[in-house]
Write a structure and sequence with these properties.
Among the domains are: about 10-245, Cytochrome Bc1 Complex, Chain A, domain 1 (2-Layer Sandwich), CATH 3.30.830; about 265-465, 2-Layer Sandwich (Cytochrome Bc1 Complex, Chain A, domain 1), CATH 3.30.830.10; about 790-980, Cytochrome Bc1 Complex, Chain A, domain 1 (2-Layer Sandwich), CATH 3.30.830. The chain has 36 helices and 28 strands. It is about 45% helix and about 20% strand. Keywords: Coiled coil.
Length: about 1000
């Protein structure tokens, strides 16, 4: 706020000092409509807005979700068919999305340019308040009937197909019912996203009425964040949107669920693939409805208690479940959820048998009762409080900081609580710390809200091999009956509606959506200043930036000397480094020490190519250690990290087996929600040796490797010995590049101490010799070769699929790379979106170019028509081979350059500097790429299309889908049957 008086048309309700965010919070109310606006005003140039509506559904037809998709498909001021897509083309937005929750729908967007911010707000505001919502949009985004090539009725729709994918995932179903099972009497008892069986019951009239009911300023809360003056934004909101409405009485509150006097049980199923080795493996959860999230101290205390109970494998409840033998590991469904008007606490075990539900229940209660009586260890309490404090203090990356605050503020503001109260952390933490001094504080919370709380459910989600077939058979029968009953007039009406939709989808937009101009984006790239020097045989990088008192110690150890047979073991190795103990010290103690003495200790691996690497068959690979700490933790954090690198206990065979199973389960559960990532990696691996390595570490090859290893107890000793050999080959100064990032004020002193610590304590050279070539045959990974121009099929029990197709692309140094980057953006925001998403009903379709791997890739996400998508890839390129629209090219340029303008957090800056150094991405090269982008013309795009089309049949295709769809498509792509892998679930 630049002035103290109320902006015109608003009254200022309150002002909050938000020192933690270096700003103030201003709560306004729009006088004419009672719309509330909360602005966190500070000096952050990445401004964000979000229009937020309470939207409680009354059934599982998915109306809130379908509407979320649809309002951004044309509005009064911008009557184009897809303003959202248009904004993706000509904006430098750093965030652009919409999200449906069980009781609210959020429409956030962010940008680093003020002009762009107001452009986005203009489109979003008009979309949510004045959408066109024509029937064609409803049928496109929601559900519709069509005729297939054989003249049979089929059902499709973007949300319909998205939710079919969601209900094919065990973890998705377990997560859904961990909430719904507790709230049978209010909107949380239904699925706001939509059940596939219920979505077709939604009528167009109900869809339109849902918007009329809830999308009004009187039911809207608008969140603002950043450095633009409040009155400037408020004036814009009033002038463009709010002034056209009057106050309206709307009761969108969600009734509090009546507390039960006794717990309840529930069983659900998930579709298991044919021949899947996971038969019998279920997820069992215990779920408690606890308290209204209206007391920040109580909520934070519950978060800390959850961390104490199961924040890591060494936490007492987590450990008890792992060691019980009842299941394989803790399900990611576990935790506490504050996104509803009453919080939910869940403990879930996966990889178990349905018959063990009661044993699981008894074990959980026994473990919690013992903890409540014996009390929590003081070190455990302190370590968890420190961990929670560190997370709150760190300026995280991965998205606009305003999004982080939006998620926090809506936990209270959505239920009419003071918005500022949800944002404050320091005073709340101080009060929790004071209360925690009282003996039995956390124990009393555990006793009151869990042990003595009768409102809980025991939910079992078990596999069913016949489920997918039954669902498909039932759908076919339903559609056949419907088709047989249709009169000639009804068929005519359906044909007319589908023709109208086709005309709508193929119509050309006349413009109207505001765009930036080429002159609005910078010609020069941003650079990160750092010092580079030798550290014995290692390399040291140092940079000083504001980190809020956190020291970042990032280490990259080269793996280029490792035998390729060892790469499949590296994911297990990285999880063991941070998940096991030390000789004589159990892993539960180490996990507590990591929370006490550090702000985080992470381990990961990566493969890639250096710039200008002519030998694409020789990738670079690195193992990264990410250590975060406060200044006062420096020495104890370094000592602990060193101990883990050099002495992690690989001889705890029980723990090694637990981590192996956890790794296996995590990979399996990610297949369906993340199928696009797997098909992209798999397709790219036949062009790029670094992608081949990453497939062995993170992809389908890793899945096959783990499947062969899990359950082989007789090999655990051998694997443990292998872990020691791998360690001896990695952790040496000669393999190390060290990146240190911290506040300028401590860079000289702390940076010197930390650099010298590693120089003095790590071996100069590796002590081990390569043993990969001497591995036993059944421990060595062999990846069957799929020839270029042959497709590969990956079978999953899901009615939607994922398609990946890779072609050889241009090198990052080549001027053609810029043309292919722009082409990939134009394709995914143009013909791919229209053909595969709008017409085909897939949730997503995109293309991307990797200059380091020299690969150009097409992919789809939750795709019901995999054959059509493969055709659409080529058709889209053919359309662009005659591309001449310089205006569209400029929009693409703006968007591509805009991604490079995104502000970076201190944590991101540290790792960016490290990776640019490792892969030799200089500022000079980055500037050349920017210059090439700025000078790109339509003729360059035509040439890029021709290059790709000339080598179209020298491709690599991977399709992940149901076996029936793979069989059908194999008539044209025989490899989908010849090179078939049925994936475990």
């Amino acid at each position: 706020m630049s002035k103290t008086n109320d902006p015109s048309g608003y009254k200022l309700i309150s002002i909050d000092d938000l020192d933690e965010y270096r700003g103030r919070g201003y709560l306004f109310e729009h006088i004419k409509t009672a719309c509330q606006i909360y602005h966190v005003h500070n000096d952050d140039e990445e401004n964000l807005f979000s229009f937020n509506f309470r939207t409680p559904p009354s059934n599982s037809s998915g109306v809130a979700h379908i509407l979320e998709h649809s309002v951004l498909c044309g509005s009064k001021k911008f009557p184009v068919k897809d303003p959202f897509l248009s904004m993706m083309k000509g904006s430098v937005n750093t965030f652009l999305n919409a999200m449906t929750y069980p009781d609210k729908t959020l429409y956030p967007a962010a940008s680093v340019l003020e002009k762009d911010f107001f452009n986005l707000m203009d489109v979003y505001g008009d979309a949510v308040f004045f959408p066109n919502l024509n029937e064609e949009v409803f049928r496109q985004e929601g559900h519709r009937l069509e005729w297939d090539d054989q003249g049979n009725l089929v059902r499709t729709g973007i949300v319909y197909n998205e939710m079919k994918g969601n209900y094919s995932s065990q973890e998705g179903i377990a997560s859904e019912w961990s909430i719904r099972s507790l709230f049978p009497d209010n909107p949380y008892g239904v699925d706001s996203g939509g059940e596939p069986e219920s979505i077709p019951t939604l009528s167009y009239e109900q869809f339109v009425n849902f918007h009329k009911t809830w999308y009004h300023p009187s039911n809207c809360k608008i969140f603002l964040y950043g450095n633009i003056p409040s009155e400037k934004i408020l004036s814009f909101l009033d002038d463009r949107f709010l002034s056209e409405f009057d106050k309206k009485q709307i009761d969108s509150s969600v009734a509090i669920q009546k507390t039960w006097s006794a717990p309840r049980t529930l069983e659900k199923t998930w579709p298991l693939g044919e021949g899947d080795s996971s038969e019998g493996k279920s997820t069992i959860s215990m779920n408690w409805k606890i308290f209204a999230a209206d007391d920040p101290v109580r909520s934070l205390s519950m978060s800390i208690l959850t961390e104490m109970l199961m924040g890591n494998a060494g936490a007492p409840l987590y450990k008890a479940l792992l060691e019980s033998g009842l299941g394989e590991d803790l399900s990611p469904v576990s935790g506490v959820d504050f996104d509803l008007n009453e919080a939910v606490f869940t403990v879930a075990l996966r990889g178990t048998d349905p018959s063990k539900a009661e044993s699981f229940r008894d074990l959980v209660f026994a473990a919690l009762t013992e903890l409540s009586q014996a009390g929590f260890d003081d070190v455990l309490k302190e370590s968890c409080m420190r961990l929670v404090e560190f997370r709150a203090r760190e300026v995280k990356g991965g998205g606009p900081f305003g999004i982080r605050l939006l998620r926090k503020i809506m936990k209270g503001w959505n239920y009419d609580r003071n918005p500022g109260a949800s944002l404050r952390f320091a005073p709340v933490m101080e009060e929790v710390r004071e209360k925690a001094k009282t003996k039995g504080y956390f124990e009393s919370i555990l006793k009151q809200w869990i042990l003595e709380n009768p409102h809980w459910t025991l939910v079992t989600v078990k596999p069913d091999k016949q489920m997918a077939k039954k669902q498909e058979a039932a759908l076919k029968e339903e559609l056949k009956i419907l088709q047989d009953s249709m009169s000639r007039e009804e068929r005519k009406i359906l044909d007319e509606k589908n023709e109208s939709l086709k005309i709508f989808q193929e119509s050309e937009d006349e413009g109207g959506v505001p765009f930036l101009q080429r002159s609005d984006i910078p010609v020069k790239v941003n650079s990160l200043a750092y010092e580079s020097s030798e550290l014995g045989p290692a390399r040291l990088l140092k940079q000083g930036v504001f980190t809020n008192g956190i020291l970042y110690n990032d280490m990259a150890f080269s793996l280029s000397h490792l035998d390729e047979n060892l790469y499949p073991f590296l994911p297990l190795f990285t999880k063991l480094l941070s998940g096991t103990g030390l000789p004589g010290v159990g892993y539960e103690v180490i996990t507590r020490d990591l929370s006490m003495k550090t702000g985080g200790f992470g381990v990961s691996v990566e493969a890639g190519h250096k710039v200008g690497d002519g030998a694409l068959d020789k990738p670079e690979s690195f193992l990264y250690i990410r250590l975060k700490m406060l200044e006062g933790q420096r020495q104890e954090a370094l000592d602990l990290a060193l101990s883990l690198l050099l002495h992690a206990d690989f001889d705890n065979h029980t723990r090694l087996e637990q981590i192996l199973v956890e790794l296996w389960n995590d990979l399996k559960s990610s297949l369906i929600p993340g199928g696009h990532s797997y098909v992209i990696l798999r397709s790219n691996s036949r062009f790029s040796s670094s992608a081949l390595l990453e497939d062995r570490m993170f992809g389908i090859a890793q899945l096959q490797f783990l499947e062969s290893l899990v359950g082989q107890k007789h090999r655990i000793v051998e694997v443990a010995s292998l872990m020691k050999e791998i360690r001896s080959q990695i952790f040496a100064l000669s393999n190390l590049t060290l990146s240190l990032t911290m506040d300028d004020s401590v860079l000289v002193e702390s940076g010197t101490v930390m650099a010298e610590f590693w120089k003095n304590n790590l071996p100069s050279k590796p002590s081990g010799e390569s043993i990969g070539s001497s591995l036993p045959q059944d421990l060595a990974l062999s990846t069957p070769a799929v020839p270029l121009s042959q497709a590969e099929g990956l079978g999953i029990p899901a009615s939607v699929g994922f398609v990946g197709k890779a072609l050889r692309g241009a090198s990052l140094q080549d001027k053609k790379a810029s043309s292919q980057i722009l082409l990939s953006h134009l394709l995914k925001t143009g013909p791919l979106w229209e053909k595969i998403r709008m017409k085909g009903g897939a949730y997503g379709a995109f293309s991307l170019h990797s200059g380091l791997d020299q690969v150009f890739t097409f992919a789809t996400y939750r795709d019901p028509e995999v054959e059509n998508s493969l055709d659409a890839f080529k058709e889209s390129l053919q359309e662009f081979s005659e591309f001449q629209d310089e205006g569209e090219l400029e929009k693409s340029l703006i968007s591509v350059v805009g991604k490079e303008m995104k502000p970076q957090s201190p944590s991101e800056k540290s790792i960016i500097v490290l990776k640019r150094h490792l892969y030799q991405i200089s500022d000079e090269l980055r500037q050349k790429k920017r210059d090439d982008l700025m000078n790109c013309r339509a003729s360059d795009l035509q040439e890029a299309c021709r290059d790709l089309l000339d080598h179209w049949d020298e491709d690599s295709v991977t399709v992940m889908s149901h076996s029936d769809k793979l069989d059908k498509a194999s008539a044209r792509w025989p490899g989908l049957k010849e090179f078939r892998i049925d994936l475990p679930q």
